[in-house]
Amino acid sequence: MALDELKSALPDYAKDLRLNLGSVIGNSDLPPQRLWGTVLACAIASRSPRVLRELEPEAKANLSPEAYTAAKSAAAIMAMNNVFYRTRHLLSDPEYGTLRAGLRMNVIGNPGVEKVDFELWSLAVSAVNGCGQCLDSHEQVLRKADVDRETIQEAFKIAAVIQAVGTTLDAEAVLADAAG
What we know:
It is a single chain. This protein is an all-alpha fold and 180 residues long. It has one domain: AhpD-like, CATH 1.20.1290.10. The chain is built from nine helices and no strands. Helix 1 runs antiparallel to helix 4, helix 2 crosses helix 9 (149-179) and helix 3 (32-45) runs parallel beside helix 9 (149-179). It is globular and about 50 Å long. The two termini are 29 Å apart. Antioxidant protein with alkyl hydroperoxidase activity. Required for the reduction of the AhpC active site cysteine residues and for the regeneration of the AhpC enzyme activity.
């Protein structure tokens, strides 16, 4: 199982990540589609080739073709939106917030899966990418759809752990290459 390979690849100083990775994926209360869509979208957002390579096959095996595509779509559209909306929010000139975005985001309105699942995946990717405005927006949509805070927190816990695992493993690979 790829999850076990990722856990065993983590160095001893990252034992907490090993335990958390097993917990957030192996012991999650999320239904399989929500869990594996979140895992796939966050693996993509982590920008870690190793994490994506290891987690994608299991995600694909646990998702319908539509959900697999939708999770990748959430990662793609949020990669754009997180930069755009985070930048607009960070600029001190509030006039940018009144301008039309002019960016296509059709997949958000018709993701090919339940809207709640797509919103949860978008929230998790926004956590990885650090966009507060997108986090607020997706959290509000989820709360209006009666998704409880525990479920929302589960998504961003997955995001946090996958991001940390990717950062750690990629750093270790660079250090190993440098050591020769």
